[in-house]
Amino acid sequence: MRTLGQLSFIGLTTLLSSFLVACGASPGPDGGAGATTGSGGAGTGTGGATAGVGGSGTGGTVNNAVCVPGVPTTTQFPRMTSVQYENSVEALLGFTTFSSGSYVGMTASASLNPDFEGPMNPPANTAYIKTAENIARDVMADATLKAKFITCDPAVAGCLTDTIRAFGRKAFRRPLTDDEVLRFEGLSNTTPPGTPEEIAETTLWAFLTSPSFIMITELEQGAPIPEDAARPGDIKLSSYEVAARLSFLLWGSVPDDELNAAADANALTTKAQVLAQATRMLQDRVQVGPQVARAFRKWADMDNDNSHWFSTTHAAEVFPEYTADTVPALAAETDAFFEEVALGGGSFADIFLSQVGFVNQHTAALYDLNPADYGPELEKVTFTNRPGFLTRAGFLSSYSGPEATSPILRGSYITIRMLGVDPGPPSENALTTKAPDIVYTSQRQYIEALTSPLECTGCHTKYINPPGFALENYNSVGKWQDTDPLGAPINPTTDVTFAEDNKVKVESPLQMMTELSKSSSVRRNFAEKVTAFATGRAPNPNDACDVDRLNTALSADGYTVLNLLSDLTQADSLRLRTQAN
User: Which of 26-40, 205-219, 439-453 has the lowest mean pLDDT?
Assistant: First the structure.
């Protein structure tokens, strides 16, 4: 069957450029997006030449923690992330993995280029084209998937036009204009003509490569209504644009039929209307769960290639219970824990205190459970000495050495990632410094000696080492230990600096986690990171106002993580946009 390669008289650049012009953008080279596009989160990314507040172009130093009322400047043409593209083709077509060609078994996001900010470039554009061609081929070859795109015989008059309007409404997150419909219909005007099936497949390909699909465009020019308390220059988004922002924020995907219906009825213009839809959407655990896990992973720095998460190898002869199957199980366990806290009615404190866990045959031994009692699927359990995600084997085995614990790695993570304290760069001699050559009876004793030089104590003694010492009851792969492998009893008691004026004597992992759950700096750091993930932009003074509001709410009794997700949808910046001066 011929696809675009044989129906190419229209010309790829001409086709894509026509869609760009239709949505009001300036076509870039190779039919790609113009210079104001960027990789966005909830449809409000800062990419390209349109720098967000606090980015290049604002001048001077900006304190992103100080609230400045207003709506952040954002691009009108953020691109979907690779995960959003993958989620969208699954929602629209039921497509999950390629079933033919060289990409068999791969997901759509795996065949795209890594996410990046800035204008579309030729390699990324080529990847979109090839990915869409393979998706269209597999969808049209599968009766179940095909029915999600086209439900009539493409040879029958009117079938393709109806399909273009119906599928286009979902893919573009808005109704197509008559001109856009005509352009899609023009795909059948080839010489020699394509068969109805070929034209249908090419039509699907054209949708999946269109900038109106790949970019979450925001072109509404309407003025805001008084209730928005907007500044001069702020623009109220259309209900279609709000629906897209809301769906990509909560689900990381395109709106469903009910949200589309609300947009069609122009019923997403007020905070109350948005909240009603958000409340409904948050009940869909299948859709919300993975997005929640992604938000937590961002906060926990798990998706950073430079972090230690799941990158430490452990000696098999020392830890035979830690195998190649352990790592993916621990990663899945961490995601499941975050989902359970958020969607099970948990509070911010539960991130550090919940004893709920998820275990399978590959991880049970790390928790002193019998692997024979578990199968390959994760099973929900309740621990007695594992408060929160920092006491689970996923974190503990990642932030360790191959054969011994690493209080420095664990302490640095807590100090920098959780408390938001930057102790500064290590000394010039840090990598060559050696501990005195004596017999040590514990890893803690060794680390204290290693970091005893004067140039080390300012950071290590005050900030880095103590949180790591508090977790020494967990060995290199995360198993509980009462005795250090070097012979001495474990001593978790230490003085932890949670803030300049708040040094606390900690005597157990549970007390350490309790103090973290009460820390205002940990709480605000969490609110800031989740807000940045939800909006798809870096922290900035405008969003700092919402962060302050969420930070305060997180400390209230009865306030859940799910409440925070709902409150994120009530920010003025979800329904308004502003343009750079």
Answer: 26-40
